[in-house]
Amino acid sequence: MNEIDLIEKIRKLATKGPQIAVGIGDDCAVFRPKPKQDLLFKTDPMIEDIHFTRDLAPEIVGHRALARNLSDLAAMGGDPEFCLVSLALPAHLMNNKLGEKWDEEWIGKFYRGLMALAKKTGTALAGGHLAKADKLFCDVIVCGSVPRGKALLRSGAKPGDALYVSGRLGKSWESRFTPRLELGRSLRGRATSCIDISDGLSLDLFRLCRASKVAAEVDRVPIVRGASLDRALHGGEDYELLFTMPERLQAPKGTTRIGTIVRGKHGAVRFQGEPLEARGHDHFRR
Amino acid sequence: MNEIDLIEKIRKLATKGPQIAVGIGDDCAVFRPKPKQDLLFKTDPMIEDIHFTRDLAPEIVGHRALARNLSDLAAMGGDPEFCLVSLALPAHLMNNKLGEKWDEEWIGKFYRGLMALAKKTGTALAGGHLAKADKLFCDVIVCGSVPRGKALLRSGAKPGDALYVSGRLGKSWESRFTPRLELGRSLRGRATSCIDISDGLSLDLFRLCRASKVAAEVDRVPIVRGASLDRALHGGEDYELLFTMPERLQAPKGTTRIGTIVRGKHGAVRFQGEPLEARGHDHFRR
Could you say which residues from 18 to 77 on chain B have a Cβ atom under 8 Å away from some Cβ of chain A? Predict the structure, then answer.
């Protein structure tokens, strides 16, 4: 199967959103914004041997490649609109050593995993790219929307705000997580700041505090069964939301208050009275 | 230099467009569309040893990574709005073997090459991502705009239309080419179809004809000094525009009429009376 035929096949998998004026198959995808929408964009590639290993099921690679970006949308309070998928495949995923054919089975499963989540979350597949590479590389770009000016930022936390987290922490590398889109949406106009926990609570809380020019006191963290406190504090890939709200507002369902925003050195975080080092995942430390 | 400090440094390089409500440093970039804009999106990664080799100057990698995507925008008649940059760097580009530091010099030069073209073309840098990889990988995502409904598509060529190409062909791998944005913009409302020649005239003309459900007769091609006819017909990376217009309209400056759209098998192309095989660059043939 050559590239043109393969793109034709992927096009058939794709859902078209009502705002996708031109989808897969032209030089660019064309998106028609609604009046007074702000659009949110995120790109976060997944690379073999860095973010996953070769033995991970292609459906899960597809799911995660989209889910990690949708988690960033959720953190801004966004509704998913569409995604673009850049996929580069190594020769070992091709049917023969001449590299003349793509491995339809792998690509098919990857897209099934991705499209299942795309359909569930209302994300259209608007375009993408296929290339060859030595290692598997996929870069999913997502676009979401919020009503004008309603995006949740990292930078709005105020001293006195209550600090919350969704779900339970320490579950790094759960094979298929669900991005907290509904929660993010419900926080619009209520949360003063929000971030998703992709690199560990300690590092992402540091980022939120630094962006907001505040400090934080953490009293407790909800831990998933079987995980250590260390993992809950510093493990990456939780994909829960960490956010702040004025104390007088009621906590959303499924969230736990873990502490309070305070004045102090920008980014300084204390856990049960002791300084908490921001040693969550940071790429340069791997 | 850690990731947070490095992102801070890149943020200082970035230009913010008037429509970028939130740039680098939050979970997503936020773009505020103008009324009645259609937005165009393109992603097209560049991978070490597939699209370039390690000895290519980082400024040129940065320039090309943006330019090849702007060329697709040009082909749709788009005005550049912003880009997102996903960059994954191998260990050999880091300062020490522990991979604890990014190579600021390489990254700095890459961004200088990219930002020089971004500023020249009015493309804001709105966000991106840094990761580690075994090979250098960069995926630049560009967003452009056209007035509603004015995007130039591949699919509008009609029998009887004149077929044009910009510039001269066969110059594959010119180190820094200029995307034909001005020409693309001038074709809005005049060209019936348009595509950029990234994979060779024969393959891209085949794509245009197939999308338009027409055939084409090519009489001549303008060839760059020193290039062979074969290279002009089949070589990739020309980044010129190939487009069709009704015969009665005047050809834009700097373009050459190379043939005529005709009825026939969809995608069938003849050159000086003989069938022209679509053997331009197609990834699966590499």
Answer: 21-22, 25-33, 35, 37-45, 47, 49-51, 72-73, 75-76
* More confident site: A233 or B44: A233
Which of the pair, B5 or A66, is modelled with greater confidence? A66
Q: What is the dihedral of CA B118, B94, B4, A185, to 10 degrees?
A: 70
When divided into structural domains, chain A yields a total of 2
Sign for the CA dihedral angle at A103, A108, A109, A110 comes to: positive
CATH of the domain at B125: 3.30.1330.10
* Contact A147/B at CB under 8 A: no
Q: Is A240 on the interface with B (CB under 8 A)?
A: no
Flag whether the pTM goes above 0.95.
no
Q: In which domain, by residue range, is A221 found?
A: 162-279
Average pLDDT on B202-208 reads: 96
The domain boundary, picked from A147, A170, A190, lies at: A147
Model confidence at B258: pLDDT above 60: yes
Same domain, B129 and B60: yes
Q: In the β-sheet with A193-196, what is the strand arrangement from edge to edge?
A: A193-196, A241-245, A162-166, A255-262, A215-218, A269-271, A274-275
Q: Tokens 């033995």, residue? A: A55
Per-residue model confidence (pLDDT) at position B279: 81
**CB count, 10 Å around CB of A37?**
19
Contact of B184 with chain A, judged by CB distance below 8 Å, is answered with no
- Reported ipTM: the value is 0.88
CA distance B228 to B224: 9
Please give the average per-residue pLDDT across A63-77, as a whole number: 96
Tell me which of B6, B9, B19, B30 to substitute to probe the interface with A (most A C-beta atoms closer than 10 Å): B30
b (16+ CB within 10 A) / e for B131-160: bbbbbbbbbbbbbbbbeeebbbbbbbbeee
Kindly tell me if the per-residue pLDDT of A241 is higher than 80.
Answer: yes
Q: What is the 8-class DSSP label of residue B140? A: E
Shared domain check, B118 and B74:
yes
pLDDT at position B95 over 60: no
Residue that the structure tokens 């050459």 belong to: B256
Do residue B209 and residue B261 come from a single domain?
Answer: yes
Q: Pairing mode, if any, of strands B29-31 and A37-43?
A: antiparallel
pLDDT higher than threshold 50 for residue B69: yes
> Quick check: A182 pLDDT over 80?
yes
